[in-house]
Input
Amino acid sequence: MGEVIKTDIRSLSLAELKEVFVAHGEKAFRGQQVYEWLWKKSCTDFDAMSNLSNDLRNWLKQTFVIHPIQVEDKQISNDGTIKSGFKLYDQKVVEGVLIPADERMTACVSSQVGCSLTCKFCATGTMDRERNLNPDEIYDQVVHIKNWAQQHYQNPLTNIVFMGMGEPLLNYSNLIKGIEKITSPEGLGMSGERITVSTAGIAKMIRKLADDEVKVNLALSLHAANDAKRNLIMPINESNNLKAVGEALQYYYRKTRRRVTYEYIAFKDFNEGMEDAKELLQFCKLIPCKVNVIEYNPTGDGKFEKADSDKIDKFCNYLEKNGIIAKVRRSRGKDIDAACGQLANKKHENALVKEA
Output
């Protein structure tokens, strides 16, 4: 006889879980109890489900499997940022980051193993996309990072940004299911108002996000407000140009009335001049928005350099004078490659802290 293939219990909905228990001769509420262990209490061990009988726990172990992500390594930056490599059940690795600040604790989580978009300034873009993350793998990252916020800073996790590895909107179904587990009262109970999904600009999926009334915030990785420059650094722009993305954003705003954030990395001698600021201002007029102008974090390939601080400030001031909410975002976690665009599973022995 071959090995028995066990079902991943976290792939089942609450209704499916109840059906499984009824078919096994148990009351449906047992399914509810297990669901709460899995998603409300973040339990990954059947033996820890203390309100179930030993017989029932043994049956669960024989029938089902739980695939929790494992903390492979953990690095702590000089500025307090914490980054981890998370090992998945198939031995693939993604990275997640806790970014602490005075008034917030932000989890930056991944949605894919690698990425298919090949943005020229992003370390993840040099990797192949190996697969999408499952909803439970998205959820597990948040649980680990939430625990770090409590352990290291004695503060609750306040915000989640899908700005880690991968393009979230190309893993749409699993993304939405993961968010549902994070926000549901039967899950972690976090507010969707505290979650931001960042996209490189997949126009049809921005429209779908609006149609599905997903109550999260949207950020667009823009980085240039003309097609010629954006094509050079973001190949996705060739199939989703600024006109298509702009129209999708207008549709999104009409349906949701939610202001969108534009992420704009400033590269030296490329996109930080006054002409670039004027083009960005025009794009900003499409819908209510705010702009985060971000310091570039070198990825070691020498293709781009960080723009001068005075140029970044001048760029930002121009937008603000013209009525756009604009802020300069200084980089966090650069010394452990945890900053924007640097996630690529690189090892740093001098900063490595093994999980106890």
Notes: Confidence is low (pLDDT under 50) at residues 347-356. Residues 157 and 235 are 34 Å apart (CA to CA). The chain has two domains: 7-65, 70-353.
